[in-house]
Structures are given as structure tokens and as C-alpha cells.
Design brief:
448 residues, Rossmann fold, 4 domains, 5-stranded mixed barrel, 13 strands, 49% helix, exonuclease
């Protein structure tokens, strides 16, 4: 065997290079996430929002990390000792050469997971005030219509109807059918609560089902159902499971009953107890009426005695005399007032007759006739003056008229364009002219 070191034979790695190679080998061998179940320990949540923890079982453990984006999607808070089911990618933390899992999903595992989810939801809704006593309303003493939200084929609805019918058959009961177990149960129960509340038909609502495991009752631990109960406009009674069972619906409801039968007893009073209570009330009312009648009779006797002591007949007689005196005074005053009004009316009628229009018509007619004659004479004089003035102006106008000049032997010569000829040179040889005389016209032609 040679002691000579062959530098070319093996590949020499650094720690980081070796860790990187191992990481690549692991990621290539398991390229997708694996599902793994175990118990949490050493859970750490630094300010970065990442979660670091160890997942272990009875004989082994592995370091794990869940980064902030995946951690923000968790519906619960991981704590030490919690049993979880996780999906993770296998890898190696190169800086330390440690094998680790990087989780992208985590959920509680088994019955313990349901219980922890129940406790976490209970704590969160309690912090929001959904369980506050100030919000809880009293049940109606005598409900007229009860809505029972449950499975129509379960034992719970039979127990409820039997007890209600036995105690007091006055209330109308309507069964509002919903599934009470399985994935479709929570949205169906919440929707029925909303419809029943909005309908205004019911005085109280009962949400109920028979007993079962925590998983069987899980529909009544749903946040959607809890908020529908809290938002109901009418009181809600919750009776889910047996006396030892508690659900989120029990804490939110206005009243929690241990069993469906107990809920029915709380909803309506017992008929016999109610009859006995009515009888006691009847006796008390009879006693009170008797006492009231006796007191009224004593008061009437007292008032009668006071009335006799004050002798009302004498007061009535005095008042009657005073009324008669007032009546006579009123009659006298009315008579005098009527006489004064009639005298004034007569004076006004006389003044009106003196001012009657017929009395003024004759002088007006005479005046109109006189004015008409004066106007006619004035018009005649005006017309004569105007006629004489027109004649005088006509004579003056005729004296200066060209026609009067023509009558004295003058003539007016017009050329062919009807222009007045003032000089002989204005008329060419052979041109025709028109001569206007005092009487008639001549048509002439210049020869030379």
C-alpha cells in the first residue's frame, strides 16, 4: 500500500460545499412536500413572524421552521405539547449542517385538536363580547309561536314536541328543518337562523339536537352559527347534546338548556301551575274589588252627608232668582238695542231716498239739451267761417295759378320729353312740340 497522497483522485469539499450538496440531494429526492404528524416542542415566535419548533415522537425528533407567510394562514396558535399534522419540505440548514423541515401547512390532529380549536374560538368570541350578559334577552312569558331549528327526524324534536304539548298546548310550534351534523350543517343552521329572525313570525327560537361526540356536535361550535345567534332579532335558546355537553352556541344564546326536554320546559309554563297561578290572581282580584267597593261606598256616604249639610236646595233657589234677573236685563238690553238700530236704519233710508238718482235726472237732461243746442250753433258758425276762408283762399290761389295766365292769352310749350321750352334754340329743326293754351292744346313742328 502506497503512502503517497494522490491529490487528483478524490474531490475535496469544504463544509459549506458539502452541506450544499447534501441539501440538493435531499431536495431532489423529495421535491414535493411530505405529510408528517407529531408533537410540538420548543416553539419560538421571534419578531420576524417566523415560527421555529421541534416535531417529535417517542423515539426521534426533527427541527422545523414555518416562515411568516405560511404562519399568517394558521387558524390556531401552536404551543408546546400540541399534536399536529403538518405538510413540509425536507431540507438542510447549510449554516449549521442541520437536517430540518420547512412547513407550509399545519393543523391540529385528532380529538385534542378539536378541543383546542373549540377553546381558541371560545376565547376569541368571548373577547369580542358575544357571550356578554348585557346582550342576553329574557324569554317571553307566553310565546305564541316557537321556531325549533333542528333535524326533523332526530329524537330531540320528538322530545321537544312531547314536552310542549304536555305542558301547555297554546303555543304554535314550527319545526324548521336543518342538518345538524356534517360539513353542510353550519351554513344551513346559520341561514335558517337568519331567515327565521328576519321573518318576524316567531317569539322565540330553539336551536337543538341530541347528544353525541365532540365531532358530532361540531356544527354548533362553528363561528358562522355563533354570529347568526348573536345577530338574531328574537331570543334564542340553545339545547345541544346532554347536560355535560357545552358548545359555542350555548355560550352565545340568550339561554342554555341542559337537554332538549329541559329547553321545552323553559319555553312554556306548565298548564297546571299556570291554572293555580290564575286562581291565586283571581282571588286577589276579588279581594281587591271588594275592598275597593267598600271604600267607594264609604266615600259616597261621606259625600252625601256633606251635601245635606250644605243645603243645596237653597243655593239652587238663589241661583234661579239671579238667573231670572239676568234674563230680564238681557231682554231689556236687547229691546233697547233693537230700537236704536231701527231708528238709525230709518234715518239712513231717508238720506238714501233724498239722494236717489231719479231726482237728479231731470236737471241733467235739461242741461244736456241746452248744451246740445249750444254745440249745434257753434258748429254752424264754425262751418260758415271755414267756408268763407276756403273761398277766399281759392280766389287767391286761382289768381297766381298758371291756368289764369293761360286764360289771358299766354301759352306753355313742351318738348317731346314734356319739358318746358323757354328758348327757341332749345327746339331743333323738325322737332315736334306741344303748345298748351288757355283752352286746348296744339301739336306743332319747327320748319326752319
Amino acid at each position: 500500500m502506497s503512502d503517497t497522497f494522490d491529490r487528483a483522485a478524490p474531490e475535496i469539499f469544504t463544509p459549506s460545499g458539502l452541506n450544499r450538496l447534501v441539501r440538493d440531494l435531499l431536495e431532489d429526492a423529495l421535491p414535493v412536500g411530505v405529510w408528517i404528524e407529531g408533537e410540538l416542542s420548543n416553539v419560538s415566535r421571534p419578531a420576524s413572524g417566523h415560527i421555529y419548533f421541534t416535531l417529535k415522537d417517542a423515539s426521534a425528533q426533527v427541527r422545523c421552521a414555518m416562515f411568516r407567510m405560511a404562519a399568517s394562514r394558521l387558524r390556531f396558535r401552536p404551543t408546546d405539547g400540541m399534536h399536529v399534522l403538518m405538510r413540509a419540505k425536507v431540507g438542510l440548514y447549510e449554516a449549521r449542517g442541520e437536517f430540518q423541515l420547512v412547513a407550509d401547512h399545519m393543523e391540529p390532529a385528532g380529538e385534542g385538536a378539536l378541543q383546542r380549536e373549540f377553546e381558541q374560538l371560545k376565547a376569541r368570541l368571548g373577547a369580542e363580547g358575544l357571550f356578554d350578559q348585557d346582550h342576553k334577552r329574557p324569554l317571553p312569558a307566553l310565546p305564541r309561536r316557537i321556531g325549533v331549528i333542528t333535524s326533523p327526524s332526530g329524537a330531540a324534536v320528538r322530545d321537544v314536541l312531547s314536552v310542549l304539548g304536555r305542558r301547555l298546548g297554546l303555543a304554535e310550534v314550527e319545526v324548521l328543518p336543518v342538518p345538524v351534523q356534517g360539513r353542510e350543517a353550519p351554513p344551513a343552521i346559520a341561514a335558517m337562523l337568519q331567515r327565521a329572525s328576519a321573518s318576524g313570525r316567531y317569539d322565540v327560537l330553539l336551536v337543538t339536537r341530541g347528544g353525541g361526540s365532540l365531532e358530532d356536535l361540531w356544527a354548533f361550535n362553528d363561528e358562522q352559527v355563533a354570529r347568526a345567534i348573536y345577530a338574531s332579532a328574537v331570543p334564542v335558546v340553545s339545547a345541544v347534546g346532554h347536560e355535560v355537553d357545552f358548545t359555542i352556541a350555548d355560550f352565545v344564546a340568550d339561554l342554555r338548556a341542559a337537554t332538549p326536554s329541559a329547553a321545552a320546559e323553559l319555553l312554556v309554563p306548565d298548564g297546571a301551575d299556570l291554572a293555580r297561578q290564575l286562581e291565586r290572581l283571581r282571588q286577589r282580584m276579588a279581594t281587591l274589588v271588594t275592598r275597593r267597593l267598600q271604600s267607594s261606598a264609604q266615600r259616597a256616604d261621606h259625600l252625601h252627608a256633606r251635601l245635606n249639610a250644605q243645603r243645596p236646595q237653597a243655593r239652587l233657589a238663589r241661583d234661579a232668582q239671579r238667573l231670572e234677573a239676568l234674563r230680564r236685563r238681557l231682554h231689556t238690553a236687547a229691546t233697547q238695542s233693537n230700537a236704536l238700530r231701527r231708528a238709525r236704519l230709518d234715518r239712513l233710508q231717508a238720506r238714501l231716498a233724498a239722494q236717489h238718482p231719479r231726482l237728479r235726472l231731470t236737471p241733467i237732461r235739461l242741461r244736456i239739451g241746452e248744451l246740445r243746442q249750444r254745440m249745434a250753433r257753434s258748429m254752424e258758425r264754425r262751418i260758415e267761417r271755414d267756408r268763407l276762408r276756403v273761398q277766399q283762399q281759392g280766389r287767391t290761389l286761382h289768381a297766381v295759378s298758371p291756368l289764369a295766365t293761360l286764360e289771358r292769352g299766354y301759352a306753355i310749350v313742351f318738348d317731346q320729353r314734356d319739358g318746358i321750352v323757354r328758348r327757341a334754340a332749345d327746339v331743333a329743326v323738325g322737332e315736334r312740340v306741344r303748345v298748351m293754351l288757355g283752352e286746348g292744346e296744339l301739336r306743332l313742328k319747327r320748319d326752319d
